[in-house]
Specification:
Layout lengths: L9 H18 L7 H7 L5 H14 L6 H14 L7 E3 L1 H11 L2 E4 L2 E6 L2 E7 L4 H4 L7 E5 L2 E2 L5 H8 L6 E7 L6 E6 L1 E4 L3 E8 L2 E8 L6 H14 L4 E5 L8 H9 L6 E7 L2 E7 L11 E5 L6 H11 L4 E4 L7 E7 L5 E10 L21 E2 L11 H11 L4
Parallel strand pairs: 11-12, 12-15, 15-16, 16-19
Antiparallel strand pairs: 1-18, 2-9, 3-4, 4-5, 5-6, 5-7, 7-8, 10-11, 13-14, 13-18, 17-18
Length: 400
């Protein structure tokens, strides 16, 4: 979510649309781009014109122009012009950081965040992380990094500023609810993301497996399955799959996680303007279908979390407890560019087994998934999780 600045002069204002497209051309021939981006951003017959414009600027502008920076800014602005909060351009450095994050480890300060109008809201803080040691707590809002305001930037863009080489400092301006902004300096470290956390809950003498998944990174389904199997062997009679504050991740991981509980049939289907309809079905071996399951969600449960929740709800495999989910009905694909960066762009919509699209039409936010049982955690009782209590009682109602 880049912030637009006023043009330096009239000449630059007039040339800006050309620069945007020229950046695309310099980044690699437009024929290699996905159809949605190619059709919006470039016309195949105009390549020479764009090259001519960028060469003219490079050769004649009153000061030296860094073509690499011009390319990055052009691509960022071009994607921004799509008015799609889910589509982004990653410059080479940002793309490397993104790849690290999807592998479940990165160098940073150790917290999950979500973009809000003022900046980044802290969803959770990892134990023994630099953020935790610095006093950052869930519910705080980060409004600046290194003194630079981040309002209007996407989560990926803003978190790239926070991440960095282990041992280096980063200064954050943080606002806690009801308090004035404060500035803290944290020292980055290698952070292993705790993708899955699990524990055993007991109610009325019956054991329930509580498995919390924070994101659908590579290999997440293996960790979920390992945790579920371990707790079932220890005597759990039901499972609560906790997807609160889980903003999504990889589509294939969503299908694999769903397949832990659904033995066969449709999990999700996708379709795009230049993507034929594709149906993803359950794969592998599921747990005993007689074991009751509840999916626990909140307003931060989005994307892959909604795919799993929608599949288990539509297939009558689980009841949903919590609040409405985020309401994202589109999916993205990443295309690497020749400069080492990548385009992460919306290419289609996804549908639950019953044909529901959870968005509001295209990239608009929709109503999401309505829970079968409403439950909200009370932030004023930090040592008690009311929503989880409701989830445990609900899943036990279906246990035998």
């Amino acid at each position: 979510m880049p912030r637009r600045r006023p043009p330096v002069n009239v000449t630059l204002a007039v040339l800006l649309p050309v620069l945007l497209i020229a950046g695309i051309w310099l980044g690699g021939h437009p024929d290699s781009l996905p159809g949605p981006v190619r059709s919006v951003l470039v016309g195949d017959s105009d390549g020479r014109l764009y090259q001519e414009a960028i060469d003219t600027i490079g050769d004649n502008y009153y000061r030296k122009v860094n073509r690499g920076q011009l390319l990055d800014k052009s691509l960022t602005a071009a994607i921004s012009s799509l008015d799609d909060r889910f589509s982004h351009y990653f410059d080479p450095k940002a793309y490397a950081s993104f790849q690290e994050a999807t592998q479940g480890a990165f160098e940073g300060v150790g917290m999950n965040v979500q973009d809000v109008p003022r900046g980044l809201r802290v969803v959770s803080v990892f134990a023994r992380s630099p953020a935790q040691r610095g006093g950052v707590k869930a519910g705080d809002t980060i409004i600046a990094v290194g003194g630079r305001k981040i309002a209007g930037q996407s989560t990926d863009q803003a978190t790239t500023l926070i991440k960095g080489r282990a041992g280096t400092p980063v200064t954050l301006t943080v606002v806690s609810p009801g308090k004035p902004p404060r500035t803290i300096t944290l020292r980055r470290a290698k952070v292993d993301v705790p993708v899955v956390e699990s524990d055993m809950r007991t109610s009325g003498g019956t054991k329930v497996a509580h498995v919390r998944l924070s994101s659908f990174t590579s290999g997440a389904h293996t960790e979920v399955r390992r945790a579920v199997d371990r707790l079932l062997k220890r005597g759990a009679k039901a499972v609560v799959l906790d997807l609160r504050h889980n903003g999504g991740g990889l589509l294939n991981e969503a299908v694999e996680v769903s397949s832990i509980f659904i033995p066969e049939g449709t999990i999700v289907s996708t379709k795009g303007r230049e993507r034929p309809r594709r149906v993803f079905e359950a794969t592998g071996t599921s747990i005993n279908p007689k074991i009751p399951v509840v999916v626990l969600v909140d307003r931060d449960s989005a994307s892959a979390s909604e795919i799993v929740t929608g599949a288990l709800q539509d297939r009558h495999r689980a009841r949903v407890v919590g609040t409405r989910t985020f309401g994202k009905g589109v999916f993205q694909e990443i295309r690497k560019l020749s400069n080492g960066g990548a385009l992460d762009i919306t290419v289609g919509e996804y549908f639950t087994p019953d044909g529901r699209n959870l968005g509001g039409g295209g990239v608009k936010q929709g109503a999401g998934i309505r829970p079968d049982v409403k439950a909200v955690d009370d932030a004023g009782t930090p040592h008690r999780d009311e929503a989880l209590d409701v989830a445990v009682h609900t899943v036990l109602a279906g246990a035998t």
